[in-house]
Design brief:
InterPro entries: DUF4291 (IPR025633). This is DUF4291 domain-containing protein. Pfam families: DUF4291. The two termini are about 15 Å apart. Helices cover about 35% and strands about 25% of the residues. With about 190 residues, the chain is an alpha+beta fold. The strands form 3 sheets. Strands 3-7-6-5 form a 4-stranded mixed β-sheet. It has one domain (about 5-180). The radius of gyration is 17 Å and the shape is globular.
Length: about 190
């Protein structure tokens, strides 16, 4: 496995990303099939293709206002647009010519990306990285209005996997995990 590789559950039409919210936003999104008020598209929103990283972030769907984990299936075109219009959220000499060029790219980019350690069933950091994709208001409007194909509540699945892991039934917990695999075809022109 490469250190930095986007892994996700996907099919020919969609890629699954995850977000965690409180009950009101989650219920309204599930009813509407997209995010509606009180979701605020004018704020930066982060999507995560890694189920286990979402479990780390939400504490297995137990943290306040993160009690509901949603699986959002978005179009490949939406993910492609996000990546092609992104900038690393921090300066990296491996990617940017200078801090000034990074700052210029950051201010012009509607999407931020960062690579954080992937997590295992015990939420321990792993040597490979999971991508987090931050959508600015411009990108968030595309996400809400164009990219979302369907939204599913995977909170019960999160609780079931966590209970299996806590009980020591690791084979069953692993079998329930979403099957994530490298999801960037050669047609994506992206190099962060």
């Amino acid at each position: 496995m490469k250190e930095r590789e986007i892994r996700a559950q996907f099919d020919n039409e969609t890629v699954t990303v995850y977000q965690a919210y409180g009950h009101v936003i989650a219920d309204r999104a599930l009813t509407a099939g997209t995010f509606v008020a009180p979701f605020k598209p004018e704020r930066m929103t982060w999507i995560k293709p890694s189920f286990l990283w979402m479990m780390y972030r939400s504490g297995w769907a137990t943290k306040p206002q993160q009690e509901r984990v949603l699986a959002i299936d978005i179009t490949h075109e939406g993910l492609r647009w996000a990546l092609e219009n992104s900038c690393l959220s921090h300066y990296s000499h491996r990617v940017h010519e200078s801090r000034e060029s990074w700052r210029a790219q950051l201010s012009a980019s509607p999407v931020r990306v960062q690579w954080d350690p992937e997590r295992d069933l015990w939420l321990r950091p792993q040597p490979h990285r999971a991508i987090q994709i931050g959508l600015s208001p411009e990108a968030s409007r595309h996400y809400v209005d164009e990219w979302i194909v369907r939204i599913r509540d995977v909170t019960p699945l999160a609780h079931e996997i966590h209970a299996l892991a806590q009980a020591g039934d690791i084979p069953s917990a692993n079998a329930k995990l979403p099957q994530e695999r490298p999801c960037l075809p050669d047609s994506y022109s992206w190099n962060l």
